[in-house]
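Hi everyone, sorry if this is the wrong subforum. Our group has a chain we'd like a structural model of before ordering constructs, and none of us has done structure prediction before. Sequence below.
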Amino acid sequence: MTAVLRMSELVVGVERGQFALCDAEAPFGEQPWRLPALEGRQVAVNGSGLMVASTVAMHDAAVRLELWDGPPPERPAGSPVGECVLEVPSGAVTAWAVPHGPVGEPLELGGPGPYAVRLYRHGGGPQARARQEAADPPLFNGLEGYVIQLWHRVSGC
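Answer:
Right subforum, don't worry. Here is the predicted structure as tokens:
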């Protein structure tokens, strides 16, 4: 049975319907200005960074980063967003508000290497956009949240 080793909860500013998770010291490899294009996908990886598509164009998303000691069990709540492998040369990741930069303290993963990443979304969608548009003044909090699970990927995964 696997367990959570470390966790970080933060609020990430979403702009243009996206935010990122990157290596804490080398976001997006050697070309940080080259963000991966989402092109209709919900998750896109480029080097040591990944972009996440939000269903709401501009808001503050609650994000929980979880480091696991192995593949976590399937989460019953929330909608699956995607799975990928992220190279983490520094051994730590940080959430990014695009285009503003890192948010909060990096989550230490315990060493460099490839990490499997699984993402879940809570809320969002047309209902959240309608709530945001109907509110006066506009609503920016509590519309959408994410759980991002990471675990060290080893041969044979």
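For your construct planning: The first strand starts at residue 4 and ends at 14. The two ends are 16 Å apart (CA to CA).
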